[in-house]
From TrEMBL:
Naturally occurring in which organism (per UniProt): Longicatena caecimuris
One Pfam family from the record: ABC_tran
Family note: Belongs to the ABC transporter superfamily.
InterPro entries reported for this sequence: AAA+_ATPase, ABC_transporter-like_ATP-bd, ABC_transporter-like_CS, P-loop_NTPase
GO molecular function, one term: ATP hydrolysis activity
Domain ABC transporter intervals: 3-232
Matches recorded under PANTHER family: ABC TRANSPORTER, ATP-BINDING PROTEIN (PTHR43335:SF2)
Protein name: ABC-2 type transport system ATP-binding protein
UniProt entry keywords in alphabetical sequence: ATP-binding, Nucleotide-binding, Transport
Keyword presence, Transport: yes
Length: 297
């Protein structure tokens, strides 16, 4: 299977492209779309789903233009939007039955699949509850369930871990890893720890452009030798923040332990450490992000 974009762009004004000249080739596996809010991730995903018409370019699935073969395409598509619309007076099972009808699923198959997904996503006990009675995490699990009803070959998930607690996020990662063997999985997130150990490649998006498509290993390699830990006295904090990109910092008994990005580290007290995807993310989006202070207050 292969999903391709050919010079895909979306313009909302003549001066501003939400998505600009994106060319991707995606096959089975997990493709993590990383970017800050407003970088164009949701717009790109909506075009990949065929919900939003491109201003320029096309999307093909197995060499067929998705807009020209849309009825066939959506049979293979599972989609979880960032802000899923739920009918809050439906019960969980009623909502999934409704989505199964919209997806034209055969009744016996739909019943079996709904039972399977309720079990898989630990929603069995909530199946007869109204959606308005559920927590945000449970609602997100219902959204994930509906995206899987038709056993999709292409699964597009926009911020799927939003609202999930740590245990639920681990379960989601395990589920996606199992699905990725024979499914093209595209997920967007700004929680990079969710995908560091499961993504086959990283698509880094900024200001509508895909800056690169690389494996996690190759992505981390570019920051080797540029990530440091530095233990300082408390009164040095201001000068450290001024001179370096701060990934995070925490108070320890000896002072403040900083994790820093630098192309020109001169402080001999610093120690080179292995980069993570958090470091990569901050290296591209430090203007948009606020660094994390742990136990500092």
């Amino acid at each position: 299977m292969e999903l391709k974009t050919h010079h895909l762009s979306k313009f909302y004004t003549k001066e501003k492209a939400a998505v600009a000249d994106v060319n991707l080739v995606l096959q089975e596996g997990i493709h993590a779309l990383l970017g800050a809010n407003g970088s164009g991730k949701t717009t790109l995903m909506r075009m990949l789903c065929g919900i939003l018409k491109p201003s320029e370019g096309i999307v093909t699935f197995n060499a067929k233009n998705i807009m020209e073969n849309y009825e066939e395409y959506i049979l293979h598509l599972g989609y979880l939007p960032q802000n899923a619309g739920f009918y809050m007076n439906f019960t969980v099972i009623e909502f999934l039955q409704y989505i199964a009808v919209l997806k034209c699923l055969e009744a016996d198959y739909a019943k079996r699949k709904i039972d399977e997904l309720l079990e898989l996503l630990h929603l069995k006990e909530q199946s007869k509850k109204k959606l308005r009675q559920l927590s945000g995490g449970m609602l997100q699990r219902v959204g994930i369930a509906q995206s899987l009803l038709n056993h999709p070959k292409l699964l597009i998930l926009d911020e799927p871990s939003s609202g999930l607690d740590p245990k639920e996020r681990i379960a989601l990662r395990q589920l996606l890893s199992r699905l990725a063997k024979d499914t093209i999985v595209i997920l967007s997130t700004h929680i990079v720890s969710d995908i560091e150990n499961i993504a086959d490649d990283i698509l880094l998006m900024k200001e509508g452009h895909i800056l690169f498509q690389k494996t996690v290993t190759d992505t981390l390699q570019e920051l080797k030798g540029h990530v440091y830990e530095l233990l300082t006295a408390e009164n040095e904090r201001e000068i450290i923040e001024k001179n370096y990109t701060v990934v995070n910092c925490k108070r320890v008994s000896e002072g403040i332990l900083f994790r820093l990005l630098s192309d020109d580290m001169k402080d001999k007290r610093s120690i080179v450490v292995e980069p993570t995807l958090d470091d990569v993310y901050l290296s591209y989006f430090h203007e948009e992000a606020e660094y994390v202070e742990t136990n500092l207050l």
